[in-house]
Amino acid sequence: MSDPTGPLDGGVLPRLRPDLERFSWPARGETPAKHFVRDPKTLLAFEFGEAGLFLCDRLDGRTALDDIFGLYEERFGASLSPRDFDLFVRQLADNGLLDDTPAARRRRTFAEILDPEVFLPLARFKLMKAGRRSTRGRRPSSARSSSWPSTGAATPARSGSRGARDSCC
User: Fold this and answer.
1) Partner residues linked to 22 by β-bridges
2) Which DSSP category does 107 fall into?
C-alpha cells in the first residue's frame, strides 16, 4: 500500500485530479443513487456512495481539513474520524485519483485484461501483418514454371471459357 505516514501528514491538502469524469445514476425505488468517478487514463470507474462523493467534492486543495470534518458532520449527522478520512484519501491516492500522486503498482483485473476496447484492436494488429499474403492453394512464385519469357509484358489470355478471367489475375 502507500507509506505509513499517510498522504495528509505532508501538510498539503489533498486534491482530486481535474481530468476525472463524474457521473451518477439516480435512485430507483429502494436502490440508492450511485455515483461514479471515471479515470480517463486507465478507463477505470470507481463507485462512491453519498458520503464518498461528498468528500470528493471537498477535495479541491483549498478546503481545510477542519472544514471538511465540520461539513461532513453537519450533512450526515455523524462525525468523520481522521483515521477514516486518511484511509479514504489513501485509497484515492493508491488508485492515482489525487493530483500529484502516482498510482500504486497493482495487478490488473481479469476484466481489465480482456477489455474488448483494448484487447480486440491488439489482436487485430497481431493477426493482420502488412506484407504477408496468403499463399494457400498457390505455389510460391519461385516454384511457378512459365513457358513465357519474362520480358515484363502481360501474359496473353488462354483460349477457352476461362481465358478472360485468367487474363486479369
Assistant:
1) 37
2) P
Which strands form 34-39's sheet, in the order they lie side by side?
Answer: 21-25, 34-39, 44-48
Distance CA 121, CA 92 (A): 30
Judge whether 97 and 20 are in contact, CB under 8 Å.
Answer: yes
Taking the CA atoms of residue 137, residue 139, residue 145 and residue 149 in that order, the dihedral angle to the nearest 10 degrees is 90
Distances (CA, A) of 127 to 43, 118, 131, 156: 25, 15, 12, 36
Split at pLDDT 50, 70, 90, the class of 32 is confident
CA 36 – CA 25 distance, rounded (Å)? 8
CA angle 107, 116, 102 (to 5 degrees): 35
Distance of CA 93 to the CA centre of its chain: 18
* Cell numbers that stand for 145 in this block: 514454371
pLDDT of residue 40: 87
Residues 86-145 have pLDDT tens digits of 999 999 998 889 988 776 666 666 666 666 666 565 544 444 455 555 555 555 555 555
Name beta bridge partners: 36.
23, 47
Is residue 47 within 8 A of residue 34, CB to CB? The reply is yes
Grid cell at residue 108 = 490488473
